[in-house]
């Protein structure tokens, strides 16, 4: 990598709010620290990318492949009623895609999850079981 190419790093807010699961070919996969919802983030490991259109076309296609793979795994594991998939970035400018498993019985239903409930800490054992199941489904080991 040439020295004038900026290195990728995870935005500090995302680092603070998530648990790292691992890396797919393009994206880092993370779990949001909120036990109210099974909530994942995909963050393309490319520096200075704020929008999907900032990625090369091949990387955009790879992002969609990874979103589909992770969303399918999340749906299988959680048996959710609906998946919410969004790239908003209003607070964190680094491109990240939310994949949230929703149930009609969850605290925010049918509204978006943001700001409805304060984050609920995960039970350490439960979140490790969830992460292990996800890693098996999305081929991270």
From TrEMBL:
<protein>
    <submittedName>
        <fullName>Diadenosine tetraphosphate (Ap4A) hydrolase</fullName>
    </submittedName>
</protein>
<dbReference type="InterPro" id="IPR036265">
    <property type="entry name" value="HIT-like_sf"/>
</dbReference>
<dbReference type="InterPro" id="IPR026026">
    <property type="entry name" value="HIT_Hint"/>
</dbReference>
<keyword id="KW-0378">Hydrolase</keyword>
<feature type="domain" description="HIT">
    <location>
        <begin position="40"/>
        <end position="109"/>
    </location>
</feature>
<dbReference type="GO" id="GO:0016787">
    <property type="term" value="F:hydrolase activity"/>
</dbReference>
<dbReference type="InterPro" id="IPR011146">
    <property type="entry name" value="HIT-like"/>
</dbReference>
<dbReference type="Pfam" id="PF01230">
    <property type="entry name" value="HIT"/>
</dbReference>
């Amino acid at each position: 990598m040439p020295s004038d190419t900026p290195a990728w790093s995870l935005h500090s807010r995302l680092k603070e709010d998530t648990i790292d699961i691992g890396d797919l070919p393009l994206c880092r996969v993370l779990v949001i620290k909120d036990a109210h919802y099974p909530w994942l983030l995909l963050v393309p490991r490319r520096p200075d990318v704020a929008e999907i259109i900032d990625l090369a076309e091949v990387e955009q296609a790879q992002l969609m492949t990874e979103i589909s793979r992770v969303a399918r795994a999340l749906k299988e594991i959680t048996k959710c009623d609906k998946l919410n998939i969004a790239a908003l970035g209003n607070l964190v400018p680094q491109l990240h895609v939310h994949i949230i498993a929703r149930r009609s019985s969850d605290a925010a239903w049918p509204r978006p999850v943001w700001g409805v409930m304060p984050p609920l800490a995960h039970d350490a054992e439960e979140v490790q079981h969830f992460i292990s199941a996800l890693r098996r489904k999305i081929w991270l080991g």
